Amino acid sequence: MDETGRIASDRRRMRRWLYLCSGLIALMVVVGGYTRLSRAGLSIVEWDVVMGVLPPRGEAAWQEAHDLYLASPEGLKVNADMSVAEYQRIFYIEWFHRLLARLVGLVVALPLLAFLLRGTIPRGRRAAFVCIGLLFAFQGFLGWFMVASGLVDRPSVSHYRLTLHLLAALGLLALCLWQALGLRDDAGSGTGVTAPAQARRLGLALLSLILLQITWGGFVAGLKAGQVSNTWPLMFGTWIPIGSMGRVVPLWRDLVDNVVTVHFTHRWLALLVLALAGWTWWRLRSVAGVPPDARRAAGLLLALVLLQVALGVTTVLLGVPLWVALAHQATAVLLFATAVVLNQRLRQT
């Protein structure tokens, strides 16, 4: 194989690895959502990177793990009468979550190390590839940082830390996708077109608004604010519900700490996202110089927003059933990833 063929082959391998990492990160977010919705996230009260790979073995080890859990805030205040058998069910959910994170870590770290040692990463992209490895390691710290907030004096994790953990995962997903698409362009598979500034501004505004909406979604999840109201579009029979906007001072604290305001804000941000997604799709159809794949991404994004709004309304009306809520979270990840692809396609050169 000549030098050109070797470079092309290396880039294909790196692209496949980046797409695999992107998919696994998305899977981790969904598994994390299932863990939270199953109320299993605080079931393992210790962090042991090596020995934690194996679950307890034998009756005595299970009893010890069970006793440690019952001494935690959630064990004392929520599940004081939980049996060992009941504890094993939630333990295995969180154990699988952590085991999957370790396995994904190997998928990220080992090929990355091989690419660095072989010198196959293009010079201009090495810093981004190193950041992928560092950010994944940081995610492990953030996961425990989040869990630790629910092991001191409260039977739930901090909604700030939960949202930070979620946003860091999405940032890592965005970096992997952006680099994978960039490698495709380096290989001559892109159109070589940069969209007009108007289109790029629209794409960036939409991505920013989606990220803001996901942030409030994290607050909703952390505060369990989705169960505040089971009616739509009204809350408690009114457009602006009593108990929102001003109950907590200052106002910025009300926006992020008041469960009614957080729920209310998440609802109406969704409609803003829908409106901007529709406008972006419409404008990109008529603006000259927009790459065809960017137009396709805009159409897919609008369809996903419509699906996401429908899932959000269904989640509220049915009282946050596990599988509907999980589908809502999974669609949010797919929606964010599509917005990243849209922006990258608008900026390809």
Could you describe the 3D structure shown?
The chain is an all-alpha fold and 349 residues long. It folds into two domains: 1-189, no CATH class; 192-349, no CATH class. It contains eleven helices and no strands. Helix 7 runs antiparallel to helix 9 (259-286) and helix 9 runs antiparallel to helix 10. The longest helix has 35 residues, at 3-37. The mean pLDDT is 91.
Give the key terms.
2 domains, 349 residues, mainly alpha, 11 helices, 72% helix
Number of strands: 0
Strand content: under 5%
Shape: flat
Helical percentage: over 70%
Q: What structural class is derived from the secondary structure elements?
A: mainly alpha
Number of helical stretches of at least 4 residues:
11
Order of helices and strands: HHHHHHHHHHH
Q: Segments where pLDDT lies below 50 for 5+ residues?
A: none
Largest sheet: none
Structural domain tally = 2
Query: Quick check: average pLDDT?
Result: 91
